[in-house]
Specification:
The complex is a heterodimer of chains A (about 675) and B (about 100).
Chain A: E1 2-9, H1 23-32, E2 37-43, H2 48-57, E3 61-70, E4 73-78, H3 84-97, H4 107-113, E5 121-127, H5 134-140, E6 146-149, H6 152-160, E7 166-169, E8 173-174, E9 187-189, H7 196-202, E10 209-210, E11 219-221, E12 228-230, E13 233-238, H8 244-254, E14 258-261, H9 271-281, H10 283-300, H11 305-324, H12 349-363, H13 368-374, H14 377-418, H15 429-449, E15 454-460, E16 463-470, H16 475-482, H17 489-492, H18 498-505, E17 521-527, H19 536-550, E18 556-560, H20 568-583, E19 588-591, H21 595-598, E20 605-614, E21 617-625, E22 631-633, E23 639-641, H22 642-650, H23 654-669
Parallel strand pairs in A: 1-2, 1-8, 2-3, 5-6, 6-7, 13-19, 13-20, 14-18, 18-19
Antiparallel strand pairs in A: 1-9, 3-4, 4-5, 9-10, 11-12, 15-16, 16-17, 20-21, 22-23
Chain B: E1 7-14, E2 17-21, E3 30-32, H1 38-50, E4 52-55, H2 66-84, H3 86-95, H4 98-103
Parallel strand pairs in B: 1-4
Antiparallel strand pairs in B: 1-2, 2-3
The chains are: A alpha/beta (about 675), B alpha+beta (about 100).
Chain lengths: ~675, ~100
């Protein structure tokens, strides 16, 4: 069995963040993780000298490789460690083709550079971003039989699915100095030799790859100091301050896409905070509900009715004044263009929509038979041609009007500059009426919106979250909404007159894009299964269920002492079942002191943390094994009695257990 | 939505002068055009949308009052352009906030 990591970066390329390679870290990594062979795979380049230096420094087999940007995805190409000169020159050609981080080479270019692909091991990003596209995989044909994935879950999914490639999981690490932890993402291959041919031979067969050395895919290495855990449900127990949370933190840092529910994070004593949390979680509901309203508010905010009235007044005044001066007109003001009005530019939006709609009717294939039944394709084509003709005609007219307006205005300006007669001010009747209508419709809209009602309801494992619209009842609520010190009292006086209220919001100091939030509030209520408002304890329970529900979007679930927030009945009835269900999909690791969880959840594996003081030095140990094993074992082969641990950690000691069992439980039973 | 509109004359020429109708509830009460104020003009604009708004065509031979000539001419032109685009105005106004109004029923 060989432990391999064929995805390692040692040179910063244009696709990387800045890092400086450290050979000692790489050495420590292969030693600590007991790796048998690695491949150096930098982005689109191969550094021959550095590669040779690495080979000299490591006592394991190091394969030369390259990670190529191929048709938008990434491909690992690994060679045997011979004919390095040839490999180097080929990689240099790839390097020459990739100038920016967005470049990639084509399949044809790849074949031209590496004509004999069968000589290499090709590993595409398979369930890993950026993936090699299906079409590219097809072109690569038989050369592809193995694919890289990012998580244990994806690895297991590939193993189970006959249609999928053989999965491999690698560290994809960059080795710098002072690394706190090392990745535990490597793959075991059932090869006898460390040759590319032997390893490649195994990678054709799903039975010959695994996540653990001896126990197949049911186990994985959780930390770089050798802790092995199950890919199902694990429970970590141990007395206080023995490193349980430390271990969990370490695992969390080692893997990507981890859901980590920290100790006490679910406690919900404060009702207001809980309300805020639920509101934040459901912010998408609020946003979706108010989306259209937000757009309207932004539009109405551009409407200035007062300004329109002033424009109308100026027009009338100037018109009357000009009329009164009619017998004193000078040479300039007598010109017809002196008070000429601009041509109205036609708005072509409607005809554009009509063309688009006709286009949809012509192009739609899904409902073609229905459309054909009523309108022939020829009629539609004739219609679209007429519409386009009309559009062109109107566009042309608009262009002319634009040009003419420009000329008229130039002449008008020159005449007015020289004349002493009053000029008639411009006014746009259409704009005035449209805006007046907008304000009226806005009023109607706000009244509808402010009609309080339930807008959303979601069931979450026995709980129900109901969203209701609610009118604001005071300026202080608006202030709370704004999370600022702005004064809302003047604005709130106009709350029942939507347009006026909007105008007064302009003077408060809040952002224009947030105005819509102050017309209606959306309140979330969490109800228990009886339809009543949740209690303090129920709030925590709801939180846990919500968090755990969310876990399946992740690749690993870590829970630190769920009992810190709940009572046993809830843990036994709801949480245990849920955690069990989730562990069928992704690895779950629960740290607990609680016997309800620790024992009755029936974990697949347990780990026990212990703190020892030896010669004044603190030593942390982690023992692990099957719950039914008599003994648990640590990485150094030391053992510990399983039963003692269960008594000490979960039952306050053996004596207490029997005492409770015989005295309390048995008596109760009788 | 097609609501039947009333035919009504709002600008007229009589006795060499221009007149406007202040209130359609009093169709016989005409006011001289130079007395037109901001609020009356706003009202006329509303009538222009609500009704089949009719006007006597401007004719500088008939209107002999110089000031009336100028005011009437400008208003006639303005209203003519506005009425010419009335269909578009209606289409446009139908669509204003339609989606939002339907959503928040």
């Amino acid at each position: 069995m060989k432990k391999i990591d064929f995805h390692i970066h040692t040179v910063k390329s244009i696709s990387d963040k800045l890092f400086e390679f450290n050979i000692d870290s790489l050495k420590e990594y292969v030693d600590k993780l007991e790796i048998d062979c690695i491949a150096i795979t930098n982005h689109n380049l191969f550094d021959k000298n550095q590669y040779l230096e690495i080979c000299q420094n490591l006592h394991i087999k190091v394969f030369p490789g390259i990670e190529i940007d191929l048709e938008g995805g990434h491909l690992l190409l690994i060679s045997e460690n011979e004919d390095i000169e040839d490999f180097d020159s080929k990689c240099n050609r790839v390097k020459g083709l990739i100038q920016t981080k967005d470049d990639s080479i084509t399949y044809e270019q790849l074949i031209e550079i590496f004509p004999l692909l069968s000589k290499y091991l090709l590993i595409p990003h398979y369930d890993k971003f950026p993936i090699i596209k299906e079409v590219t995989l097809k072109k690569l044909g038989n050369h592809i039989f193995v694919g890289e994935v990012t998580s244990l879950r994806k690895f297991k999914a590939c193993i189970k699915d006959a249609e999928k490639l053989v999965p491999v999981i690698f560290s994809d690490s960059r080795f710098t100095d002072n690394m706190a932890t090392y990745s535990t993402r490597q793959t075991f291959v059932n090869a006898v030799e460390n040759t590319l041919r032997a390893i490649k031979g195994c990678l054709y067969d799903k039975a010959k790859v695994s996540l653990s050395k001896n126990e197949g895919n049911e186990f994985f290495q959780a930390t770089d100091d050798g802790i092995i855990l199950s890919t199902g449900l694990n429970v970590i127990i141990g007395e206080r301050s023995t490193g349980k949370t430390y271990t969990l933190d370490k695992i969390s840092n080692n893997f990507e896409n981890v859901k980590y529910i920290k100790q006490f994070s679910l406690l919900q004593n404060d009702e207001e905070n809980f309300k805020k949390l639920v509101t934040t979680r459901h912010s998408l509901v609020t946003e979706t509900y108010l989306k259209e309203f937000k757009e309207v508010v932004l539009d109405v905010n551009q409407v200035d009715l007062k300004e329109n009235e002033i424009a109308l007044e100026k027009f009338l005044d100037s018109l009357k004044k000009y009329a009164s001066e009619s017998d004193k007109l000078d040479a300039y003001s007598k010109c017809k263009l002196y008070n000429e009005t601009n041509f109205v530019i036609d708005d072509l939006d409607n005809i554009k929509k009509l063309i688009k709609a006709t286009e949809t009717l012509i192009e739609n294939t899904e409902y073609k038979t229905i459309v054909d039944k009523h309108i022939s394709n020829d009629s539609l084509k004739a219609l679209i041609i007429d519409l386009i003709k009309k559009y062109n005609e109107l566009s042309e007219a608009n262009l002319k009007k634009h040009w003419l307006n420009e000329q008229i205005n130039n002449i008008k300006d020159s005449l007015r500059f020289r004349s002493t007669t009053t000029a008639i001010e411009e006014v746009d009747f259409n704009k005035i009426q449209i805006e007046k209508l907008k304000a009226a419709k806005f009023k109607r809209l706000v009244k509808r919106l402010q009609h309080e009602k339930e807008i959303d309801s979601k069931e979450i494992r026995g709980f129900k979250v109901v969203a209701r619209t609610k009118k604001y009842t005071g300026a202080s609520q608006l202030k709370a909404k704004s999370k600022s010190q702005f004064a809302f009292s003047n604005a709130f006086e106009n709350y029942n007159e939507p347009y006026k209220f909007l105008i007064s919001l302009q003077n408060v100091g809040i952002e224009e894009v947030d105005f819509y939030k102050y017309f209606i509030d959306i309140e979330y209520k969490t109800l228990n299964k009886h339809g009543f408002k949740v209690s303090g304890g129920e709030r925590s329970e709801f939180n846990l269920l919500h968090e755990i529900n969310d876990a399946l979007k992740h690749d690993l679930l870590l829970i630190d002492e769920p009992e810190s927030s709940f009572d046993n009945i809830f843990l036994k009835n709801d949480v245990n079942v849920l955690i069990k269900e989730i562990s069928m999909q992704i690895p779950v690791i629960v740290v607990t002191h609680n016997n309800t969880i620790g024992a009755s959840i029936k974990p697949d594996y347990i780990a026990y943390t212990q703190k020892n003081i030896n010669d004044g030095k603190i030593i942390y140990k982690v023992f692990f094994g099957h719950p039914t094993s008599k003994q648990l074992r640590n990485v150094n082969g030391e053992t510990i009695e399983n039963l003692n641990i269960l008594f000490n950690c979960l039952e306050a000691g053996e004596e207490a257990y029997y005492e409770r069992k015989t005295r309390a439980y048995e008596i109760l039973k009788d | 939505m097609n609501v039947k509109q009333e035919h009504m004359k709002y600008l007229k020429i009589e006795n060499n002068k221009g007149f406007f109708l202040k209130d359609k509830a009093n169709p016989t009460e005409w006011t001289e055009i130079d007395q037109l104020g901001k609020n009356e003009l706003l009202k006329l604009l509303d009538y222009a949308i609500e009704d089949e708004f009719e006007m006597d065509t401007y004719d500088e031979v008939i209107i002999q009052h110089k000031a009336h000539q100028i005011i009437y001419k400008h208003l006639f032109e303005k209203f003519s352009t506005f009425l010419l685009n009335k269909n578009r105005f209606k289409d446009e106004s139908e669509l204003i906030y339609k989606e939002a109004l339907e959503k928040y029923q």
